[in-house]
Amino acid sequence: MALPGTRARGWAAAAQAAQRRRRVEGAGGSPRPEPESRRAALYVHWPYCEKRCSYCNFNKYIPRGVEEAAMRKCLVTEAQTLLRLSGVRRVESVFFGGGTPSLASPHTVAAVLEAVAQSSYLPADSEVTLEANPSSAPGSRLAAFGAAGVNRLSIGLQSLDDKELQLLGRTHSASDALRTLAAARHIFPGRVSVDLMLGLPGQQVGQWLRQLQELLHYCDDHISLYQLSLERGTALFAQVQQGALPALDSELAAEMYQRGREVLRQAGFRQYEVSNFARNGALSTHNWTYWQCGQYLGVGPAGAHGRFVPHGAGGHTREARIQTLEPDNWMKEVMLFGHGTRKRIPLGRLEILEEVLAMGLRTDIGVTHQHWQQFEPQLTLWDVFGASKEVKKLLEQGLLLLDHRGLRCSWEGLPVLDSLLLTLLPQLQEAWEQRTPAPVPGG
Ligand SMILES: C[S@@+](CC[C@H](N)C(=O)[O-])C[C@H]1O[C@@H](n2cnc3c(N)ncnc32)[C@H](O)[C@@H]1O
Ligand SMILES: C[S@@+](CC[C@H](N)C(=O)[O-])C[C@H]1O[C@@H](n2cnc3c(N)ncnc32)[C@H](O)[C@@H]1O
Ligand code: SF4
Fold first, then answer.
1. What is the tens place of the pLDDT at every residue in 165-197?
2. Domains in the chain, ordered, with CATH?
3. Which residues form the Radical SAM core domain (predicted)?
4. Least distant ligand from the CA of 97
5. Going edge to edge, which strands form the sheet with 276-278?
């Protein structure tokens, strides 16, 4: 049933009304269940930041001025084009990431959501996340994003120590971040996440754990812990290279992570993924789609990634798609072709299975038999891993579990997933090469 007056009042207003009534209804398209192949998550990239943080090598630009009307038009156009090419009829979540999307105007966010709701079915209770930097997200602005249709906020808090924030080149203080967090919780109760970094140069375990404990007094139901990765080309990398800052200590970082996840577990958080913790069921459904290898469309410049089968253009193979990096070039391409996709890489069946394995094992449920079967009906998880001596060793060490539910990491195994994959991926490749190929129809 469509919500009366939805189109006229816009998706955002409809979403708010529906949230108030706790009903699942929507705007464009039909609310009937769509098959997996017609559903997707949608990522929208806002490429601009106020200032370059010392550690960040994500694709972002520090512009003199932003032609926001032109950018808005292009984001809308590209979202419409990719929805058409993919043949996706139901968008289950939208994530505005960056860069710093809290610098975009709420009007732009509303325009993209309207376009999505007109080109597909966007249920009124879909998760719509916006990433916000504390320095560009006063309460009034957050409320305007809420009115535009955002219903989840991810705050880049990073640290609760002003000296560390300075080292990271952030434009906010710890008290700015806590103020933003309080305002966000008021507007999006139960739907606010914070990013906290660990393993910074010179950071001590006890001092970092005290930050985490302090954060527990203020946070909502979702926390992401990100270990600093020192990226070539960043200011922090140069400072460490030149000896101005101590090198990263991976053992200390591992201890912080280990003790941090224990603290969060005791505080009632479920570690549902390597870096992500939620309580009261506040898991991010958007990110869950990535880990479950669902379809997602990537809109916007600076390398937004997508993975989908271009059904609308007659395609049958899942493709990895990467957008043009530089925003001005991307805009030109969108104006000419309707999209700024720079690279399309068709994915082979084995490549898809490798992703299913590597992404699925990041989650606490791992790869279930049912999930695996959706991607590979002939070769079971037992066929692939059941007879391997190396895998048996990992099972005996208690790092992995293979049972009636499927394959997953244990609590002890999750932090060393990368090393487990060094055994599991070659095992998958070997089993794939030795499988009996399905008969060719008519052959
Ligand atoms: C790319 S940022 C975009 C969001 C927003 N601009 C911000 O800074 O909060 C998303 C998250 O990635 C994480 N991140 C960025 N660079 C990182 C690095 N070199 N190592 C670890 N985490 C990083 C930060 O925690 C950040 O909150
Ligand atoms: C590191 S995650 C942080 C998520 C956050 N902790 C949460 O729970 O919502 C978000 C960042 O990943 C990157 N990202 C996510 N999805 C992407 C996609 N489809 N294409 C390109 N970058 C993406 C963006 O830089 C975005 O700022
Ligand atoms: S961490 Fe966030 S604010 Fe800082 S440069 Fe990267 S994207 Fe921009």
1. 999 999 999 999 999 999 999 999 999 999 999
2. 10-288 (3.80.30.20), 350-434 (1.10.10.920)
3. 34-270
4. 2
5. 270-273, 276-278, 222-227, 192-198, 152-158, 127-132, 90-98, 39-46, 296-299, 305-308, 319-323, 341-346
> Is there a contact between 151 and 184 (Cβ–Cβ < 8 Å)?
no
Average pLDDT (430-440) is 80
Pick from 175, 31, 7, 176: which is nearest to 92 by CA? Answer: 31
For 353-379, what is each residue's pLDDT tens digit? Answer: 999 999 999 999 999 999 999 999 999
Reduced to 3 states, what is the DSSP secondary structure of residue 152?
strand
Ligand 1 pocket mutation pick from 226, 234, 276 by most atoms within 8 angstroms of CB: 226
Per-residue DSSP letters for 166-214? Answer: HHTT-SS-HHHHHHHHHHHHHHSTT-EEEEEEE--TT--HHHHHHHHHH
Nearest CA to ligand 2 atom 23: 304
Euclidean distance between CA atoms 373 and 34, whole angstroms: 19
ipTM above 0.90, yes or no: yes
| Contacts of 249 by beta carbon, 8 Å cutoff, 6+ apart | 199
- What is the reported pLDDT for 16? 55
Question: What mean pLDDT value characterizes the chain?
Answer: 92
3-state secondary structure of 235: helix
In the block, residue with structure tokens 């203020």: 218
- Cα of 287 from ligand 2 centre, angstroms: 8
Nearest CA to ligand 1 atom 16: 56
φ, ψ at 391 (rounded to 5°): -70, -40
Given strand 367-368, what is the order of strands in its sheet? 367-368, 406-409, 400-402
Tens of pLDDT, residues 190-218: 999 999 999 999 999 999 999 999 999 99
What's at 35, amino acid-wise? Answer: P
Residue linked to tokens 């090598």: 57
Q: What is the pLDDT of residue 136?
A: 80
Atom nearest to 56 CA in ligand 3: 6
Percent of the chain with pLDDT over 90: 85
